Amino acid sequence: MSTFNTLDDLDSNQRVLIRLDLNSPVLDGSARDNRRFDRHAETVRELADAGHRVVCMAHQGRPGNDSFISLKSHADILSSHIDRDVQFVADTYGADAIEAIRSLENGEVLLLENTRMVEEELPEEDPEVKAKTDFVETLAAEFDAYINDAYSAAHRNHASLVGFPLVLPSYAGRVMQSEYEANTAIAEREFDGQVTMVIGGTKATDVIGVMNAIGDKIDTFCMGGIAGELFLRAAGHNVGYDIDDNDLYDTQWENNKATIESLLEERGDQIELAVDLAYADGNDERAEVEVAAIEEKDKSYLDIGSTSVAQYDPIIRDSEAVFVKGALGVFEDERFAVGTSGVLEAIAETDCFSVVGGGDTSRAIELYGMSEDDFSHVSIAGGAYIRALTGDPLPAVELLIDAAN
Asked: How far is CA 232 from CA 56, 212, 240, 297, in A?
């Protein structure tokens, strides 16, 4: 497997510039704590404890969105996770930022302002173009090494992700390292036993693309979520349609109809479809109906049913490897968490290699009393996880590999 340099290869007493992904939900103008801070804190803490001067870059939101805010609140949250002060400067590469960088002592940590407030950051351009921007050239002159820990943003050709590896010795942080190893396992590892993938979530187009790309490497797909209903629709059942103008199904059906029908025809024996679905009845309680008994879709189905969970359970427990992409229901509502929590509990109780991908799905682990230690890897990546599963290159990762070679 092609690889990159890691923190283990970093010389001592370095001035390091590290790219994190601290993009977070925003409440009342401030970032909310989440698992990304905890994950990246491991890398930042290790660098600071080793006596490096650590300067962090990260993004938050996009220009024009309510989530596009300063990183000042992010510095406070990161500080609480690494148990040391994280200085903040409301500048990215101007005079104030350079002064703060040069004032840093060994073992100290500084967070620069939101990279997406820099005009040269966002346009998707070739790395060679990004490397010649004032943003990259100005900052690079202040550092001995660049570290990319932002695996979840590695599919972007943004300046802070792809410009610096062309002008500085470059390394992977601990999050980048662990995410890359786990998320490329389908492509890179050989498994002797059954390999299962649990497919769900609302972005059916993404997961259908994954199924089409890696069908040869998967023995069984267990279906739920929007994609699961669309496959049931292709199989002739009266589900997978929009109601109340929610636009969750019909557009994705039109965009993926040919692929879904092709997958059912060519890989139907690999695809396990739900046999029952759950909904909220007139008393606002969970109720279930057999898929075969649905004559017309007149209500929203919010989870797979109990019989389907029981059908998926032995498949998972007999697997050597299980990959999860997307929730099987609206697990934030305890009434409709049966599918997602049931599948995750089966994985947690099984001695298999397991990767749970996507921030939403991974939240269910803590929400329903499980531990991340029960899984081989819990990914904080979304788009990058999809790209890794489908075999598409991740520009920021490719550059780290090139830098090592």
From this structure: 47, 17, 7, 12
Neighbouring-strand partners of residue 195: 321
Separation between Cα atoms, residue 317 and residue 319, nearest integer Å: 6
Tokens of 190: 């050989």
For 192-236, the DSSP string reads SSEEEEEE-SS-HHHHHHHHHHHGGG-SEEEE-HHHHHHHHHHTT
Averaged over 261-269, what is the pLDDT? 97
- 75 neighbors 111 (Cβ within 8 angstroms): yes
Q: Which helix (H) or strand (E) holds 386?
A: helix 383-390
Residue 223: what pLDDT?
98
Distance (Å, rounded) from C-alpha 280 to C-alpha 297? 13
Q: What is the pLDDT of residue 166?
A: 98
Strands 319-325 and 353-357: parallel
Residues 365-375: tens digit of each pLDDT:
989 999 999 99
The percent of the chain in helix, strand and coil, each rounded to the nearest 5, is 45, 15, 40
DSSP string, 16-34: EEEE------EETTEEPP-
Can you tell me the distance from the alpha carbon of 379 to that of 313, in angstroms, rounded to the nearest whole number?
22
Contact between 301 and 248 (Cβ < 8 Å): no
d(CA 248, CA 101): 47
Residue range 55-69, pLDDT digits in tens = 999 999 999 999 999
Q: Give the closest residue to 104 by CA, choosing from 37, 13, 7.
A: 13
Q: What domains appear along the chain, each with residue ranges and CATH number?
A: 7-180+394-404 (3.40.50.1260), 184-374 (3.40.50.1260)
DSSP calls for 80-144: HHHTS-EEE-S-SSSHHHHHHHHTPPTT-EEE---GGGSTTTSS---HHHHHTSHHHHHHHTT-S
> Which two three-digit tokens encode residue 141?
């002159």
Residue 383: partners with Cβ closer than 8 Å, 6 or more residues away:
152, 155
Report the candidate in 382, 394, 388 with the shortest Cα–Cα distance to residue 188. Answer: 388
| pTM for the full predicted model | 0.87
Instruction: Name the token pair of 143.
Output: 């550092």
* Residues sharing a CB contact under 8 Å with residue 237, sequence separation 6 or more, in sequence order: 291, 292, 294
